[in-house]
Prior knowledge:
By secondary structure, this protein is α+β, with helices and mostly antiparallel strands. The protein has helices spanning about 5-20, 25-30, 45-55, and strands at about 30-40, 45, 65-75, 80-90, 100-115, 115-125, 125-130. The chain contains three helices and seven strands, in the order H-H-E-E-H-E-E-E-E-E.
Amino acid sequence: xxxxEAQLRQLVSTWMNATKSGDIDTVVGLMTEDxxxxxxxxxxxNKKEFAEIAKAQSSESSPEIKGTSDIKEIQILGEWAxxxxxxxxxxxxxxxNTSMKREGHTLTIFRxxxxxxxxxxxxxxxxxxxxxx
Length: 133
């Protein structure tokens, strides 16, 4: 049996891989029903809004998404856990040669439900980064 920390690291890995492959159902399945995403300059987003936006962006003309998550700390407190990480995401539209990179830190709170860790709250401070030519 994996430790709680190993399960949380696996959740992050699964999230990143599913995002890259466009597997929206897997990503949405890693969230609690009452998940809240805090975004800079925008109103908080819930699970339904996340799924709608993600599905609208997934098609044959979907952008290519590459990302890395460098986990800096995980703390587990019973049925709750938090993690902060440095996240880097590069999005390349299918019909363009230009890419957009955003990176920054995230603070994520997880909740264990029926023995499974799920993402419950997420605050990210990703900002645009100039790509080298």
